[in-house]
Amino acid sequence: MEKISVFLDDYRQPPEGYVLAETIDECIQLLYNFDIEHLSLDHDLLNKTRNGFMLVQMMVKEKLFANRITIHSANSVGGKAMYKLLKQAQFESILSHATIVSLRPLPLHSIPSKVLQHYIDVR
What we know:
Residues 4-88 form the Cyclic-phosphate processing Receiver domain. The chain is α/β, with parallel strands linked by helices. The chain contains four helices and five strands; from the N terminus they run ββαβαβαβα.
């Protein structure tokens, strides 16, 4: 199965080499159909009820994960909730302990070069 990296966001542009998913439905389809090396997730999306937290709930329920997961949401409450749910899934051995889960909020307008290194290091 082909390995890809996915960037879920409806506002920011993805780093070079990433597939952009603008909705959780697009992201779920990618999780079902590809081996995801790095999954970077936003919380706030255009559809307020189908946000990044709902995606993480679906991922845990369906056991759909990536080798590395980053929460990049600027929404501190929503981002932390997503991070905590993934860490709880690791604690309960639903998500592999080998999966790297990180919380790295991104500004809305551009990705600073130092932060971009986090995405480059993934390859």
